[in-house]
Amino acid sequence: MEEMKGLMIFTGGSKMDGRVGCAFVVFYNKTELDNRRFRLNDSSTVFMAEVIAIQQAVQYVKANDLGQVNIISDSRSALMALSVVEEARNIINNIKEDIKEYKGKITLTWIRAHMLNFGNERANQLAKEATLISDEAISFVPSRNQIRNEGNKIIKNLWQNRWNDSKNARWTKNLIDKVNVDRLYGDFYINQIFTVHGVFREHQARFFKKTSLCSCGQETGSVLHVIKECEIWTSYRKNWPSGWQLMSLKDLINNAIIRISLRGLLHELLIKEIDLLSSFSETDVSRH
C-alpha cells in the first residue's frame, strides 16, 4: 500500500471451474477509482486472460486520456510476450502499437503474485468474479497450439483405451499401464523383462522348444524366478533395499539401484546361456 502512488492500473486473469475471466482496477494513490471485468470463452487460457486484461487497460487509458499511467501485472509470461521485438500473435502486436501511439506514457510493470499487494489482490479478486458472468464478452478462435494440444489429448485417450482393451501383451500392460509420448530410450536388458522375451528359458522353451527348467534346476526359468528367487543370482540382491521381497516387479524395475543390478544380472545370464549353447555346438561337431 505504501508504494501505491500516482495513477496505477492492476490487471489479473483467472480460470475457475473451466470458466475464464479477467479484470483491471484503477487506483489513484491508494483510492480505487474504477474497475472492469470481462468473461472470456471457456477455451481461453489464463495467459490469454492476462493479455486481454492488459489490452483492455491500455484501451481504457487511451479512451480517457489519463496521461502517465503504470499498468501492473503479475503475469511474467504476458509481459515477456509484450517485450519481445518480433511477435507473431496479432493481439500482442496490437497492444504494443496502442502503447506506442499513445500521446501520454504507459509503463508496464511486473509484480510478484501472492505478496498481499492490495491492488494486485483486488485485480485477481475481480478476475475470479468475472468467471461468474453469465455471458461471454470476449471470444477467441482456438490457437494452433490449443488445437494441436487438444488433438494430442484425443489421440492419447484413444491410444490408452486401445491399450486397456487389448488382450495382447498382458504381461507388458501390468508393467506399463499408462501410455505416454515421452521419448523411449532402448535398454537391451530391461526390455527383456518388459516383454518377457529374450534370454529367459521360459521364453526359449515356448518359441524354440528348448528346456524351460532354470539352470539352478529348481523352477521354470521365468522372469520372476530369475529375478526374485533363483539362488544363482543371490549376490546381485545383497545391495537391494530392505523389503524388496515384497516389492512388485514394476517397483523393482523402477528402483534405480535395483535397475542397475538387474542389467548386470541379465548380462551375466546371457553370457552363461551363450557359453552353454557354444558348448553344445562344439559337442555336436565333435560327434560328427
From TrEMBL:
<dbReference type="GO" id="GO:0004523">
    <property type="term" value="F:RNA-DNA hybrid ribonuclease activity"/>
</dbReference>
<dbReference type="Pfam" id="PF00075">
    <property type="entry name" value="RNase_H"/>
</dbReference>
<dbReference type="GO" id="GO:0003676">
    <property type="term" value="F:nucleic acid binding"/>
</dbReference>
<dbReference type="InterPro" id="IPR002156">
    <property type="entry name" value="RNaseH_domain"/>
</dbReference>
<feature type="domain" description="RNase H type-1">
    <location>
        <begin position="3"/>
        <end position="132"/>
    </location>
</feature>
<protein>
    <recommendedName>
        <fullName>RNase H type-1 domain-containing protein</fullName>
    </recommendedName>
</protein>
<dbReference type="InterPro" id="IPR012337">
    <property type="entry name" value="RNaseH-like_sf"/>
</dbReference>
<dbReference type="InterPro" id="IPR036397">
    <property type="entry name" value="RNaseH_sf"/>
</dbReference>
